[in-house]
Amino acid sequence: MKRDITERLLAARKAGRPVALVTDLGTGLQTLVYEDAVHGGFGLEDDLLEEVRDRLRQDRSGLVGDPEDEEDGIQLFVQTHNPPLRLLVVGAVHIAQALAPLAALTGYAVTVIDPRGSFATESRFPGISLHDSWPDEALSALTIDNRTAVVTLTHDPKLDDPALLVALRSPAFYVGSLGSKRTHAKRLERLKEQGVTDAELARIHAPVGLDIGAVTPAEIALSVMAQITAVRRKAGAA
């Protein structure tokens, strides 16, 4: 690997910037593919570039191209380098107690946010990062990116609504909120009054989670994690 490529790759990883290292197996040349730029020893046709970026978004390293193709005969190895997926949970409630370890098992770095000290405790969330600031302040400080999912679970508009205002105007790939259809309708009215657009409101997955008939906190957590996964993988996730 050339020094320039190595230095840029290390810099991207340090900055938490998604990047794919693409190696032409025929020539040994290497190129870095970012979400918005390309740098390196060779360029890529639009279709290959889109495939590499799709692999980057999906965390899928592997081979691209067909060496036996008569026209191109190119084979590339794509090695993705992404910052961790994150799940930011607003509300240290029973559902969060089930959701946090499940999300961690799925590969997410989980942070539970709740200014109520008696809820967000190490004994209730062993090994989970806890944040005791007000949700909107915490979400702003945590710098939401496009590898972040946000879920609000408190049922308290004083906590959930400010968090949603931040999340809906961020690059978060998923925003979900607990509550019945009736509760969500009232929530939408409140957020509209605060200037949230229809397009932003449409980003909210509510009632949160896939409709699997979930009743218990563990079942609801499972439905939420399934929906987050479906959205990330672009499967059906209504």
UniProtKB/TrEMBL annotation:
Annotated ranges, domain XdhC Rossmann: 87-228
InterPro entries from the UniProt entry: MoCofactor_Util/Proc (IPR052698), XdhC_Rossmann_dom (IPR027051)
Transmembrane stretches, start-end: none
Superkingdom classification of source: Bacteria
Record-linked Pfam families: XdhC_C
The protein's name: Xanthine dehydrogenase
Taxonomic source organism: Azospirillum formosense
Source taxonomy: Bacteria, Pseudomonadati, Pseudomonadota, Alphaproteobacteria, Rhodospirillales
